[in-house]
Amino acid sequence: MPEFKPPRPGEQRIDLPTRADAGLHFIGRIRSAYPTPADCPKNTLERTEQATIEVDPPYDQGLAGIEGFSHLIALYWLDRSRRDLIVQHPSHRPEPAGVFSLRSPVRPNPIGLAVVEILSREGNKIHIRAIDCADGTPLLDLKPYLASSDSVADARRP
Amino acid sequence: MPEFKPPRPGEQRIDLPTRADAGLHFIGRIRSAYPTPADCPKNTLERTEQATIEVDPPYDQGLAGIEGFSHLIALYWLDRSRRDLIVQHPSHRPEPAGVFSLRSPVRPNPIGLAVVEILSREGNKIHIRAIDCADGTPLLDLKPYLASSDSVADARRP
């Protein structure tokens, strides 16, 4: 495990269980323009660095039929994130906030989520418009984006 | 492990690795009106059965600040799902399809995802409008829904 910085004032850490409740399989990797987590943008709305999702065999058989969708939800494992900060104070926020009101990569289960636009598919590679994670990030799942249930254009935030 | 039915014609199964690449911690449970996965609705758009997300201590400290959001993204572990069907033939589809073009609970990493509307919060319990999973489903993560990056109202599907 890498060494992590001590929590900032107002941040709160917890002890995580030593034993896992369930196990994940890495099914591929995300190739991005960002070598390390420190290089990653906070959001990708204005970014133009394309990225590629590589799905390893035998999981790539599961890509059959994705061509008809314009967008996917990608879930990935933020393998270089600490997991123990339950209250965090990001530099762009006036006050500390609970992890479940933040999209921070630091979470008890560091699963990253991005809605990605498909540009093209080439075998087991899906070229996408942009993503916020570091090169080599392990892939966990891809789901078709369904506007009927996933899009809430008028969702409120503070 | 429960016994699973044999694949239907056109379905494809794979052997999953025996060893996990990463481990998850269950951080709470989802309380719903559906006792088993067989009772769960295919989608919740027209459903009115309320549900509750219970976040266990010490993870509940991470809820600070969620009040300002109208919607959350819930990630949960579909612990009663098989993981080995990479091509599936759901009864409502004319042809078999790859798992990554389906929102089936059967996936190599059976992580369920729902965009949920917050009705109220009562300590470590969040009452929500509806969700599609069975009572007792383990919770993995909650993320604030951000319309700017999560809402794609004109996303296309086949």
Q: What labels would you give this structure?
A:
homodimer, six-stranded antiparallel beta barrel
Describe the structure.
- 2 copies of one chain form a homodimer.
- Chain A has 158 residues and is an all-beta fold.
- Chain A has one helix spanning 147-150; strands spanning 12-13, 22-24, 28-31, 51-55, 71-77, 85-88, 97-98, 111-122, 125-128, 137-144.
- The mean pLDDT of chain A is 94.
- At the A-B interface, strand 2, strand 5, strand 7, strand 8 and strand 10 of A face strand 2, strand 5, strand 7, strand 8 and strand 10 of B.
- Strand 2 (22-24) of chain A pairs antiparallel with strand 2 of chain B.
Describe the protein's topology.
The structure is a homodimer of 158-residue chains.
Chain A lengths: L11 E2 L8 E3 L3 E4 L19 E5 L15 E7 L7 E4 L8 E2 L12 E12 L2 E4 L8 E8 L2 H4 L8
Antiparallel strand pairs in A: 1-6, 3-4, 3-10, 4-9, 5-8, 5-10, 6-7, 8-9
